Amino acid sequence: MDQHVIDNSDEARFEVFQGDQLAGFARYHRFGNEIAFIHTEIFPAFEGKGLASVLARTALDQARERGLAVLPYCPFIRRWISKHPDYVDLVPTTHRARFEL
């Protein structure tokens, strides 16, 4: 089934869909050239399908395309970045120790 992610800027969150159903989201706060990821949630009916990873990768890829520095306050996003070192560069060097990256 089709999985896709949109940036719902009105709600300040990236949303992941399985087909036409909202499956979860990653809430963020934008300020200047930074994006702070606050909370990620996948709804119970959609857990275990890899949607959280699709959501994280797409949200971080869009942050990179937009030239945004990432502040991963959300534990899931922080863990995802730590497991995918090619995304650590999105976190400013001055903040990496704070996020244990």
TrEMBL record:
InterPro entries: Acyl_CoA_acyltransferase, Gcn5-rel_NAT, GNAT_dom, GNAT_YJDJ. GO terms for molecular function: acyltransferase activity, transferring groups other than amino-acyl groups. Residues 1-101, 6-92 form the N-acetyltransferase domain. It comes from the Bacteria. This is N-acetyltransferase. It comes from Streptacidiphilus fuscans.
